[in-house]
């Protein structure tokens, strides 16, 4: 199996859920016996320049006829002129982390449609994304498969004081909505909630500057810290010390941060954007392990933060639900198994 991924898949300066997903499934498929051959391709995906298009064209041209190729949708979906001509000789499977039209313009959505219709199969990383692709692009539902991200087991978070330490993880971009969180925190002065903003600072430097400026203007410099990209043990330590994880995204297809929090028994305050409500889910007793607010709604986000900070009974209820939800999460081996089934079918292999 050949896998085409963005060249920054292992770049610790720009961590993303998509990169984590790509790296984990490549590793786990190899452990399951697949011969995985990666082709990292550099470019400003999904709007690459001529050199990046040529590099992708060379990568695909070098794959032998009849081979199964798993393409990251960020690379493939914006360039049907490169990908579609290969569909007659290769067994193309496109992995979509987030439909392009959710963040970009209608032009990219049209290009994505052309690419996906040419693929032998499409894999979505969550049920919301699968439904969105079927509805938006007129794909047959049987061609769109779901392989949600897994999560690694983790010890329960110890937290700080049970209330005031917040964590927001994600690249600092308008999509992730850190500006909304800063505005909401400014409206909740007592008790003084503290929040670490953890994520890449390279994807939108203008937005990063705007968030820093808002923090200073609102006098939050001692409470809200822009930490940059943390990974590995440092990120694990941040989760371990968090009382609440906040995901204020304007757009989100799945939200791996949510399951990372739940794996540690941490409640989540999230915008009800895209697939986030499904990812948050419910504990076995039906209770939601966090709070959901309308997306792009600062007053609602501030009201939820105020409830969290002033209602001990609510905090205890949400922590209990998060700990029970923790036991229902699937590991990455389930993701790899789902994806392997799609790849076997694309290759014509029984079973």
Salient structural properties:
single chain; 351 residues; alpha/beta; Rossmann fold; 6-stranded parallel sheet; 42% helix; globular
Structural write-up:
This protein is an alpha/beta fold and 351 residues long. It has 2 domains: 2-150 and 331-347, 3-Layer(aba) Sandwich (Rossmann fold); 165-326, 3-Layer(aba) Sandwich (Rossmann fold). It has 14 helices and 12 strands. The mean pLDDT is 96.
Write the layout of secondary structure elements.
Elements: E1 2-6, H1 17-31, E2 37-41, H2 50-61, E3 68-72, H3 73-76, H4 80-83, E4 91-96, H5 106-118, E5 121-124, H6 127-137, E6 144-146, E7 165-169, H7 178-186, E8 194-198, H8 205-217, E9 224-228, H9 232-240, E10 244-247, H10 256-262, E11 268-271, H11 276-280, E12 290-293, H12 298-310, H13 312-326, H14 332-347
Parallel strand pairs: 1-2, 1-3, 3-4, 4-5, 5-6, 7-8, 7-10, 8-9, 10-11, 11-12
Helix pairs in contact: 1-14, 7-8, 7-12
Number of strands: 12
Given helix and strand content, the structural type is alpha/beta
Give, in order, the helices and strands. EHEHEHHEHEHEEHEHEHEHEHEHHH
Strands of the widest sheet, in order across it, are 2-1-3-4-5-6
CATH architecture identity of the largest domain: 3-Layer(aba) Sandwich
- Please give the largest β-sheet: 6 strands, parallel
Q: Unreliable stretches, pLDDT < 50, 5 or more residues?
A: none
Radius of gyration: 21 Å
- Proportion of residues in helical segments: 40-55%
For the residues shown, what is the average pLDDT? 96
CATH class designation of the largest domain: Alpha Beta
